[in-house]
Design brief:
alpha+beta, six-stranded antiparallel beta sheet, 2 helices, globular, single chain
């Protein structure tokens, strides 16, 4: 009788461990699927915005590898606008031959630590396509903070500013 009880206990323990492994594996698979779905949705949205042939690029200086020369991109998720301003979490609503429009979050030296910790919501418009080194690129941007510029009376936020195009 004692041997049967030990065997039953071992079987239950093994079954419990197996079910725990399945639960953990299911959690990992679900998390990976959610991440992939989010990335896929962002890629699908970006692809639908950039499908038009002949649309301009933007020279993006985001990341150390592109800081000096930039990288020609369409619908980037992050974009360096100037040496003082960058935008992230960009959701592109329009990208065509004349302009590109996105909403996202902006930060810069002009707002100090306040917006470095909590970037400000903004609408970004790229415009004035020009041909540079054989590639058509947007050469200007306009940035509008949600709720107006408020306390941020900076040159980077007033009117149209040029993008680095080389």
């Amino acid at each position: 009788m004692k041997r049967t009880t030990n065997m039953t206990r071992r079987h239950k323990t093994a079954l419990g461990a197996a079910l725990s492994c399945v639960a953990v594996l299911g959690t990992v698979v679900t998390a990976n699927a959610a991440t992939a779905a989010t990335a896929s949705a962002h890629t699908a949205h970006t692809a639908s915005v950039t499908r038009a042939a002949g649309t301009p690029y933007v020279m993006n200086h985001y990341g150390e590898e592109h800081a000096d020369k930039g990288k020609a991109e369409r619908s980037p998720e992050h974009l360096v606008l100037s040496e003082f301003t960058s935008a992230g979490d960009l959701n592109w609503k329009q990208w065509d031959a004349k302009k590109a429009v996105a909403t996202g979050r902006v930060t810069g030296l002009w707002c100090g630590q306040a917006c470095l910790d909590k970037p400000l919501k903004a609408t970004l418009t790229l415009s004035d396509p020009k041909t540079v080194n054989g590639k058509k690129v947007f050469s200007s941007f306009t940035l509008k903070l949600a709720g107006g510029s408020g306390a941020y009376d900076s040159e980077d936020l007033q009117g149209k500013r040029h993008l680095a195009t080389t």
